[in-house]
Amino acid sequence: MMLSACDSGQTSFQFDEMTYSPSETVFKLFAPADAQCLVVVGDDTLQMKQMADTLWTATAKGDHKGQTYQFLVDGQASPGVFAKAVSVNGEKGVVVDLRDSDPEGWTNDKPVRRLPQDIVVYEMHHRDFSINQPLAQHPGKFLALTESWAIEHLKQLGINTIHILPSYDYGSVDETRLNEPQYNWGYDPVNYNVPEGGYSTDPYDPLCRIREFKQMVQALHQAGIAVILDVVYNHTYDIDHSNFQRTYPDYYYRGDSNGSGCGNETASEKPMMRQFMIESVKYWINEYHIDGFRFDLMGCHDIETMNAIRQAVDEIDPNIFIYGEGWSAGACALPNELLGMKANIPQMPRIAAFSDDMRDALRGPFSDDTVEGWLGRSAVSDCEADMNLLKESLKAGIAGMIAHPQVDYSKVNYSSAPYALEPTQMMAYVSCHDDMCLVDRLKASISGITEEELIRLDLLAQTAVFTSQGVPFMLSGEELLRTKQGVHNSFESPDSINRLDWQNKERYPQVFDYYKNLIALRKAHPAFHLGTADLVRLHLEFLTVENDFVVAYRLKDHAGSDEWQDIIVILNADKSPVTVDIPKGRYSVVCCDGKVDEQGLGEVTGSKVQVSPQSALIIHN
Ligand code: CA
């Protein structure tokens, strides 16, 4: 491979592949030194000149706004790797002035960025959310999230951050056939820096998808909701047809390695791939006002790159939130010690990772949908030692996966040591788009579960999540008791599987109300999101309960300057009521037996309290 100055360390190279002005458009490309490089602009073909070993440039005189362009590198056509506007299906780049894409008032749009401990994340797929909503004017589109029914629902629920599944241009939906139902999660990137055409009202108009994406961000920001983008730099739709491969063969990948499990694996450690990721993230922040990023298979990226991204983002705004999946899907070409794995999170300050430890402790292991977690065990049949391990994993999750004197990490399911330096480095969750949603998982793992029990366990699970010191994260639709009919991997399942059933909001009002009131309780009380490991160690004390079906803890001494002196949370997975010893006192009940009300649901006094079966109790004095 030809290496250049760009490969030897810091570089001033930028992926400014197309710079428009009314008098000329300048094209630049990172391509091999010995390649033949052309750019086709409209009907004209221009020879590109070699400015440095691997930097090629050409200038098209005159006004080319609206014309398409394609780079030809040794005859391989592509829109480059950093197109900012594209034709339908992302095949060609388009010369645009991005200011033409700004909706009215865009320059006044303010990002919505919070301290990480204050974030409550809602993970959503555009089509799932709106395709089956009778009030939607633009079902399945970016614009659905500008509509009042959508904004009202999100505000009512109380989440303050929306994580949208891949929304860059991806390959698995044919944008020329949008009149036919097509579905994909979108983990097959084509153009990383352009919104997906299938979510726009007109994929043939290159500015439309850009403008509508911005309208969506603008509407959410006006409602106080931050927008987090799901970014998938770890692999592309395929290698042979990818824009990376067509502009610089074999540079951007780790050979034949398949750590993504999707057929290929990019090489974040190579200077120009690292540079690409940094610039791409900065571009989404600056051009689209994005508030955070969720890195797909972060465990495929090297630690140094993740830290370089954190640093570049900090220069814009330290409150831009970054988290990722701290694992890969196959063996990567780099050793695990160098990768953004969960166990290496201590080397990546202010980057968070999903806690599969807590998730699987609650609902059962990833490897087998039929095995129940702490939630579904029956006291009669199950091994006590096992239950004790699940309980310890859940305690670790409640503490935010930090070092805590009362958590024994030798018993925690996947982490033999605390992985988080701060609790905000842990994403607390029980379900996401991957795997079964919570309802389906409970049904699959607990034979003969009744609807009543299902709801009790669902609410109990989310109580653990939303009272965790980690950053709470929920899958869209769980508040509507969502089902995907038992489908485990619904990445290309039809709408009938993936769509939300909005009628469930009326069918199960107690479920929606519980989620809503639980989120409100968390947000109103700093004790539930202390933000630092030191504060958690100071204020969070687990109460001794012999029964492994019960986890109980106290947030004591006005934790985080909370107005409440002591808060006691008791999670009871037992099918029977349990009695728990508590510090003697008079307490107000704010969560009990499937109801949450911050204003109070009654009082308890004394040094013992009874907790209803399969439910949470939260009290304070
Ligand atoms: Ca597309």
SSE layout:
Blueprint: E1 18-20, E2 24-30, E3 37-41, E4 44-47, E5 49-52, E6 55-61, E7 68-73, E8 76-78, E9 93-94, E10 121-124, H1 126-130, H2 148-157, E11 161-164, E12 168-170, E13 189-195, H3 206-222, E14 226-231, H4 243-247, H5 271-288, E15 292-295, H6 303-314, E16 321-324, E17 352-354, H7 356-363, H8 384-398, E18 426-428, H9 438-445, H10 451-466, E19 471-475, H11 495-498, H12 504-507, H13 509-524, H14 533-539, E20 540-542, E21 550-555, E22 567-572, E23 578-592, E24 595-596, E25 603-611, E26 615-620
Parallel strand pairs: 10-11, 10-19, 11-14, 14-15, 15-16, 16-17, 17-18, 18-19
Antiparallel strand pairs: 1-2, 2-6, 3-4, 3-7, 5-6, 7-8, 7-9, 12-13, 20-21, 21-22, 22-26, 23-24, 23-25, 23-26
The protein binds calcium ion.
Calcium ion is lined by residues 89-90, 169-170, 173, 175, 190, 196-198.
